[in-house]
Specification:
about 190 residues, mainly beta, SH3 type barrels, OB fold (Dihydrolipoamide Acetyltransferase, E2P), 3 domains, five-stranded antiparallel β-sheet, 15 strands, flat
Protein backbone atom coordinates (compact mmCIF):
# COMPACT_ATOMS: atom_id res chain seq x y z
CA UNK A 1 0.00 0.00 0.00
CA UNK A 2 1.18 3.50 -0.81
CA UNK A 3 -0.11 6.99 -0.14
CA UNK A 4 -0.34 9.84 -2.67
CA UNK A 5 2.70 11.35 -0.90
CA UNK A 6 4.68 8.45 -2.42
CA UNK A 7 3.60 9.28 -6.00
CA UNK A 8 6.33 9.59 -8.60
CA UNK A 9 5.94 9.96 -12.35
CA UNK A 10 5.50 6.44 -13.70
CA UNK A 11 3.99 4.96 -10.52
CA UNK A 12 1.18 2.46 -11.21
CA UNK A 13 -1.79 2.38 -8.82
CA UNK A 14 -5.07 0.52 -8.53
CA UNK A 15 -7.90 3.04 -8.30
CA UNK A 16 -11.65 2.44 -8.69
CA UNK A 17 -11.05 -1.12 -9.87
CA UNK A 18 -8.67 -0.13 -12.69
CA UNK A 19 -4.90 0.30 -13.04
CA UNK A 20 -3.65 3.86 -13.62
CA UNK A 21 -0.22 5.35 -14.34
CA UNK A 22 0.69 8.60 -12.58
CA UNK A 23 1.72 11.09 -15.29
CA UNK A 24 2.18 14.15 -13.06
CA UNK A 25 1.34 15.23 -9.54
CA UNK A 26 1.48 18.27 -7.25
CA UNK A 27 0.97 18.71 -3.54
CA UNK A 28 -1.07 21.52 -1.98
CA UNK A 29 -2.14 22.49 1.48
CA UNK A 30 -4.71 25.05 2.51
CA UNK A 31 -4.99 26.60 5.95
CA UNK A 32 -6.18 24.24 8.67
CA UNK A 33 -6.83 21.38 6.26
CA UNK A 34 -5.03 18.21 5.36
CA UNK A 35 -2.63 18.26 2.48
CA UNK A 36 -3.99 17.10 -0.88
CA UNK A 37 -2.25 15.63 -3.91
CA UNK A 38 -3.58 16.58 -7.35
CA UNK A 39 -2.56 13.93 -9.86
CA UNK A 40 -2.99 13.47 -13.59
CA UNK A 41 -3.44 9.73 -14.15
CA UNK A 42 -3.89 7.56 -17.26
CA UNK A 43 -5.95 4.38 -17.38
CA UNK A 44 -3.61 1.78 -18.89
CA UNK A 45 -6.46 -0.25 -20.40
CA UNK A 46 -8.46 2.53 -22.08
CA UNK A 47 -5.92 5.36 -22.22
CA UNK A 48 -8.42 7.75 -20.59
CA UNK A 49 -6.87 10.68 -18.69
CA UNK A 50 -8.17 11.81 -15.30
CA UNK A 51 -7.25 14.59 -12.91
CA UNK A 52 -7.95 13.40 -9.40
CA UNK A 53 -7.47 14.99 -6.00
CA UNK A 54 -6.33 12.59 -3.28
CA UNK A 55 -6.12 13.04 0.48
CA UNK A 56 -2.39 12.84 1.24
CA UNK A 57 -2.93 10.03 3.79
CA UNK A 58 -5.29 7.94 1.63
CA UNK A 59 -4.13 4.33 1.18
CA UNK A 60 -3.88 3.04 -2.39
CA UNK A 61 -2.71 -0.30 -3.72
CA UNK A 62 0.34 -0.21 -5.96
CA UNK A 63 -0.02 -2.34 -9.11
CA UNK A 64 2.44 -5.19 -9.72
CA UNK A 65 5.09 -3.96 -12.15
CA UNK A 66 7.96 -5.60 -14.02
CA UNK A 67 10.55 -4.25 -16.44
CA UNK A 68 12.02 -6.45 -19.21
CA UNK A 69 14.71 -5.78 -21.80
CA UNK A 70 13.42 -6.10 -25.34
CA UNK A 71 14.67 -5.33 -28.82
CA UNK A 72 12.66 -3.30 -31.33
CA UNK A 73 12.52 -5.11 -34.64
CA UNK A 74 10.13 -3.30 -37.00
CA UNK A 75 6.78 -1.53 -37.33
CA UNK A 76 3.92 -2.39 -39.67
CA UNK A 77 0.13 -2.05 -39.79
CA UNK A 78 -0.18 -4.65 -36.99
CA UNK A 79 1.83 -2.49 -34.57
CA UNK A 80 5.37 -2.21 -33.26
CA UNK A 81 7.19 -5.55 -33.06
CA UNK A 82 9.60 -6.41 -30.25
CA UNK A 83 11.54 -9.44 -29.09
CA UNK A 84 12.01 -10.25 -25.40
CA UNK A 85 15.79 -10.63 -24.90
CA UNK A 86 15.43 -13.34 -22.22
CA UNK A 87 12.82 -15.66 -23.69
CA UNK A 88 13.20 -14.58 -27.36
CA UNK A 89 9.39 -14.36 -27.62
CA UNK A 90 8.18 -11.91 -30.26
CA UNK A 91 5.20 -9.64 -29.65
CA UNK A 92 3.55 -6.54 -31.11
CA UNK A 93 2.51 -3.43 -29.19
CA UNK A 94 -0.40 -1.22 -30.16
CA UNK A 95 0.53 2.28 -31.46
CA UNK A 96 -1.55 3.75 -28.57
CA UNK A 97 0.86 2.18 -26.07
CA UNK A 98 3.92 3.49 -27.94
CA UNK A 99 2.58 7.04 -28.42
CA UNK A 100 5.23 9.69 -29.11
CA UNK A 101 8.02 7.29 -28.17
CA UNK A 102 7.80 5.96 -31.74
CA UNK A 103 10.14 8.83 -32.64
CA UNK A 104 12.95 7.04 -30.78
CA UNK A 105 12.44 3.57 -32.23
CA UNK A 106 15.20 2.60 -34.63
CA UNK A 107 15.80 -0.96 -35.82
CA UNK A 108 17.57 -3.23 -33.29
CA UNK A 109 17.16 -0.71 -30.45
CA UNK A 110 17.27 -2.32 -27.00
CA UNK A 111 14.63 -0.79 -24.76
CA UNK A 112 12.80 -1.54 -21.53
CA UNK A 113 9.18 -2.66 -21.72
CA UNK A 114 7.11 -2.00 -18.59
CA UNK A 115 4.68 -4.81 -17.73
CA UNK A 116 1.86 -4.13 -15.29
CA UNK A 117 0.02 -7.18 -14.03
CA UNK A 118 1.55 -9.25 -16.84
CA UNK A 119 0.58 -6.91 -19.72
CA UNK A 120 2.99 -4.62 -21.60
CA UNK A 121 1.84 -1.05 -20.90
CA UNK A 122 4.72 1.29 -21.69
CA UNK A 123 8.19 1.48 -23.17
CA UNK A 124 11.22 3.24 -21.80
CA UNK A 125 13.83 4.05 -24.48
CA UNK A 126 17.49 4.55 -23.50
CA UNK A 127 18.24 8.00 -22.06
CA UNK A 128 20.81 8.85 -24.75
CA UNK A 129 20.30 7.75 -28.32
CA UNK A 130 22.48 8.35 -31.40
CA UNK A 131 20.45 9.31 -34.48
CA UNK A 132 21.24 10.49 -38.01
CA UNK A 133 20.33 13.95 -39.34
CA UNK A 134 18.39 13.59 -42.60
CA UNK A 135 17.30 17.19 -43.16
CA UNK A 136 18.58 20.58 -41.96
CA UNK A 137 19.34 24.03 -43.33
CA UNK A 138 22.83 24.78 -44.67
CA UNK A 139 25.30 26.84 -42.64
CA UNK A 140 25.92 30.51 -43.35
CA UNK A 141 28.93 32.58 -42.37
CA UNK A 142 28.34 34.49 -39.17
CA UNK A 143 25.63 32.17 -37.87
CA UNK A 144 27.58 31.39 -34.71
CA UNK A 145 27.41 34.96 -33.40
CA UNK A 146 23.86 34.53 -32.16
CA UNK A 147 24.73 31.31 -30.30
CA UNK A 148 21.39 29.77 -31.26
CA UNK A 149 20.66 26.73 -33.31
CA UNK A 150 18.68 25.44 -36.23
CA UNK A 151 16.02 22.73 -36.57
CA UNK A 152 17.14 19.32 -37.80
CA UNK A 153 14.96 16.39 -38.81
CA UNK A 154 16.31 13.01 -37.69
CA UNK A 155 15.93 9.58 -39.32
CA UNK A 156 12.78 8.74 -37.32
CA UNK A 157 11.03 12.07 -38.03
CA UNK A 158 11.95 13.69 -34.70
CA UNK A 159 12.82 17.40 -35.04
CA UNK A 160 15.36 18.88 -32.59
CA UNK A 161 17.37 22.09 -32.39
CA UNK A 162 21.04 21.51 -33.19
CA UNK A 163 24.09 23.82 -33.41
CA UNK A 164 24.79 25.52 -36.73
CA UNK A 165 27.78 23.29 -37.59
CA UNK A 166 25.64 20.11 -37.85
CA UNK A 167 24.92 19.04 -41.43
CA UNK A 168 22.93 16.32 -43.20
CA UNK A 169 24.44 12.87 -42.60
CA UNK A 170 25.93 13.73 -39.18
CA UNK A 171 25.05 11.52 -36.23
CA UNK A 172 23.93 13.32 -33.08
CA UNK A 173 23.26 12.11 -29.54
CA UNK A 174 19.74 12.95 -28.31
CA UNK A 175 18.48 13.06 -24.71
CA UNK A 176 15.15 11.19 -24.89
CA UNK A 177 13.88 12.74 -21.63
CA UNK A 178 13.89 16.27 -23.06
CA UNK A 179 14.09 15.78 -26.86
CA UNK A 180 17.30 17.79 -26.90
CA UNK A 181 20.64 17.67 -28.66
CA UNK A 182 23.57 16.55 -26.48
CA UNK A 183 26.58 16.22 -28.81
CA UNK A 184 27.75 15.16 -32.24
CA UNK A 185 28.73 11.50 -32.49
CA UNK A 186 31.75 10.55 -34.61
Amino acid sequence: MITPNDFRTGTFIKYKGEVYEVLSYSRSRTAQRRARVLAKIRNIRTGALLEESFDSEEKLEEAEREQRKSQFMYADDMGYHFMDLKSFDQFALDPKIIGDKKLYLVENLQTDIIYVEGKPTNIRPPIFLPMEVVETEPNYRGDTASGGGKPAKLSTGLVVTVPFFIKVGDKVKIDTRSNSYVERVT
